[in-house]
Amino acid sequence: MNRFHERAVNALLTVLFWLVIGTTAGLILFIAARGIKGMSWEFVSAMPRDRGLAGGVLPAIVGTLVLTSGTALVTVPLGVLAGVYLTEYARPGPAVRLVNLAIVNLAGVPSIVYGLFGLAVFVLSLRLGPSLAAASLTLGVMTLPVVVTATREALAAVPVAYREAAYALGASRRQVILTHVLPYAKSGIVGGSLLGLSRAMGETAPILVTGVAFWLPRLPTGPASRFMALPYHLYIIATQVPGMPPARIWATALTLLGLVMALNFAAAGLRRYGKGG
Known about the structure:
The chain has helices at about 1-35, 40-45, 60-90, 95-105, 110-125, 130-155, 160-170, 175-200, 205-210, 230-240, 245-275; strands spanning about 50, 55. By secondary structure, the protein is mainly alpha-helical.
């Protein structure tokens, strides 16, 4: 009977696995089949014209990449440092448990709440205005719990023997962390951070009220600039621009999907490399 239950569970898990893989692959092929018709060199390299009905989406592509880079500059250093402190320095106790609970809860907060937080704090209180800096800070706050969690999991996976061997040779805690723990965990930390950034790259709600614009036929010139971004651009052309050719809508979706998938593949590759090493 136990063997029958085991086989049944294995069969169910196999079916569910292939169902998820098939659904994901079908969705990607569905978007690619429709988006490839609108793809061209002009589409990815030219400025938009006529309310997005003509030209390309270069400002949206550049804006998305710059925004994601700004988010990384905000969230990766803070998230890694916080994860190192909570894992290697903080003493277990009620305060640490409370912080861990807060991190878990923050990871589940709806993105629009982060957008309102960014509007109140960065745009209005700090007077950054609707800008690339305000949007990057907002997405950085939203992504921070993911980076902290990824860092803690990567550090926890480091074998205790690594630490004990270093301590036995007289190394200090700082030396152990810098020369043994972090090098071992770096692929997991970077991979988890990239997964968090890939989520931020596809967000619309947080940047909706912090600086994104639909029509800007120019590239961002600095942190105070407003910017275009593919998620918001896709939302507008799909819902609020009459006469938009469907091929341009699907091509925009395919471009965004390609950028997000590139980050996800990079994260998966780093995690696999870390396990192999």
